[in-house]
Write a structure and sequence with these properties.
mainly alpha; 2 strands; 2% strand; 189 residues
Length: 189
Amino acid sequence: MGNMKTRKWVWAILILSFFGVADATYLAQHALSNTPLLCNVENLSGCNIVASSQYSRLFGIPLAVYGVAFYGILFVLSALELVIFDRLLRRILQGVAALGFLSSLYFVSVQIFLIGAFCIYCFASATISLAILGSATAIEPLRGADGSHPFARLKRYLSRPAAPKAPSNPPMPRPEPPRPDQFRIPPRP
């Protein structure tokens, strides 16, 4: 699928991932060197609070280093997609983009609800990952074997009539209790 529309979205991912690498590299450099970040945007000036919080590292590694790896992987995958038009490669690109966006969503939630400070660089990264996810979805929307969208299949499944209930086995008739005349004891000889 090497048409111009697809290539446009792949180019968008390539450019966005470059900006993501730049953003994450800036954060990683400051996290590794323990120098304060330049952050003077009103209401989003908590970059140093966020960067020095207990939530800023995973397994002892600054989250920004993971960001550099994430955007680097996206950059390489999108560059490969420009050269190799492969459906599996597009699916991997979509999966990595979805994983990155979900991670960004989680980390922004941590900033809002746990740390109570906002970092402009983190919001920029979350915005970039959202744009990358949108572009990755636009490359080749997920379709079923019949060409339908997955939510259309789900809608059809949910709106189908309920299957008729299987007839239940009727209960076995209970034997009638014995009548007294059934128990005749023969006379003894």
